[in-house]
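Why run this: before we spend reagent on co-expression, it is cheaper to look at a predicted model of the complex and decide which construct boundaries make sense. The entries below are exactly what would go into the expression plan.
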Amino acid sequence: MADSVPTELIEEYRQRQRELAHAVIERSLTKAPTVIAAVDVHLRGSWGVAAAVAYTYPSLEEIDHHVATGRLTFPYIPGLLSYREAPLCLKAIRGLAQEPDLILADGQGRAHPRRAGIACHLGVELGLPTIGVAKSILVGRHDPLGEERGSVAPLVADDEVVGMAVRTRTGVTPVYVSVGHLITLDEAVDWTLRTTTRYRLPEPSRRAHRLAQVTARTLPTDAP
DNA sequence: GCGACAG
DNA sequence: ATCTTGTCGC
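The model came back. Tokens follow.
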């Protein structure tokens, strides 16, 4: 199992995140994405399986995938998820044959206590546009949003708009979209909707999730 | 001091 | 997220 982290070190990791937040660039995409990737991690004991998948746009067909497996050393600590999952995610993404134009990460981007969620971490590390698409809120609040697909409501934390609650399917619980790197919030919302068809989450994200899950299932449960 | 807390 | 089967509902 992952070890605990000394409280004095926690603050060092937080400081690194504050620095990472300054490296994040929020600006319009330079190129219309034609290759969109998604990455997700499945946990199994102290092992993690990260799956990266690449899809074409607008046809939304899978063209590649890569899986990376490894032991998780860092524990799950709210706000410090990157240190636990990003290394494996980077390994999976770098295994793709072609560099994607946009990456969807499972978790927050700037909608983070220090504006440095895992999507920011991956984006800055790779120098590629990234979006955080989370299934629940880490920080911030938002007003109720319409029931129709496409309805949105700003996610506000510390009097700052850090993301957007987005209804990707009519009548379904919203997802929380935020900028990771090299994209604007409006574009992040737009591309999240463009890649979401029948379900709550974007197709590439769903595929990455299932691939990581089935791969992890073939691995033996570890010994404490 | 008391909750909240991505995956 | 994980540990886990069936079950209620569109």
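Residues 41-45, 76 of chain A lie near DNA strand C (CB under 10 Å from a C1'). The beta strands of chain A are 35-44, 47-56, 62-71, 102-106, 130-134, 152-157, 160-166, 175-181. Bring this page to Monday's planning discussion.
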